[in-house]
């Protein structure tokens, strides 16, 4: 198995690795079965997803269930004290017979990491919004899009850019006809190739 350290190193060097992604329930199960307290700090973040708690509990041992319930209870306390909205109603119904005092030490540990994550997430979203606005203001963006894409493709991309839902037909069209072009545009080798062509042609015209 490839180590996480090697994967991270390769990604930093620009080498992309594609792996099948986990569903949040599968990730939680893997974390609990690893018995790794460091990884357990990620569970409140996964609980922010749409979780099928009944499916999850069926897959866990009694000890793992209790550990998960404790983390949910801790997350509920953090959520209430910080006026957050993390858990869905089904998760809020889950409880364990432990007082705030008993959970205090672990709660502080989880809270530090969860609030740090949420703060970073908020900053990332703010930066992405500012970047989107900046890109939209570029004078040549629409002109360049019209060279590469048909009006229908541009219309669908505009809907995605403005976070508007796509119809089933539009979604299928996006994956079939738009996404491959966007992925090609993101390819650094293609950008380098285009730059060489443009420079070479310009030099020969001198």
Q: How would you portray this structure in words?
A:
The protein is an all-alpha fold and 206 residues long. The chain folds into two domains: 21-124, no CATH class; 140-204, no CATH class. Helices cover 73% and strands 0% of the residues. It has twelve helices and no strands. 9% of the residues are buried.
Summarize the structure in short.
It contains twelve helices and no strands.
Count of discrete structural domains:
2
Poorly predicted spans? none
How many helices? The count is 12
Rg for CA atoms: 24 Å
Range of strand content: under 5%
SSE pattern: HHHHHHHHHHHH
Number of strands: 0
For the biggest sheet, the summary is: none
The end-to-end distance, rounded to whole angstroms, is: 54 Å
Q: What is the helix fraction of residues, given as a range?
A: over 70%
Q: Can you tell me the overall shape?
A: elongated
Overall mean pLDDT stands at 86
Helical/strand content category: mainly alpha
């Amino acid at each position: 198995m490839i180590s996480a350290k090697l994967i991270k190193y390769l990604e930093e060097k620009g080498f992309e690795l594609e792996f099948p992604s986990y569903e949040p329930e599968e990730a939680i199960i893997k974390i609990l079965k690893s018995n790794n307290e460091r990884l357990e700090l990620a569970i409140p973040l996964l609980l922010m997803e749409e979780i099928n708690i009944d499916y999850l509990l069926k897959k866990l041992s009694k000890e793992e269930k209790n550990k998960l319930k404790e983390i949910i209870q801790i997350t509920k306390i953090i959520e209430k004290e910080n006026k957050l909205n993390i858990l869905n109603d089904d998760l809020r119904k889950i409880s364990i017979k432990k007082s705030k005092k008993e959970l205090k030490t672990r709660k502080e540990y989880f809270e530090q990491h969860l609030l740090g994550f949420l703060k970073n997430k908020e900053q990332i979203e703010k930066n992405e919004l500012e970047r989107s606005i900046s890109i939209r203001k570029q004078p040549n963006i629409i002109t360049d899009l019209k060279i590469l894409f048909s009006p229908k493709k541009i219309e669908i991309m505009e809907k995605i850019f403005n976070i508007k839902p796509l119809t089933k037909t539009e979604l299928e069209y996006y994956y079939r006809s738009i996404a491959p072009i966007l992925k090609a545009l993101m390819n650094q080798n293609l950008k380098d190739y285009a730059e060489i062509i443009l420079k070479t042609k310009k030099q020969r015209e001198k």
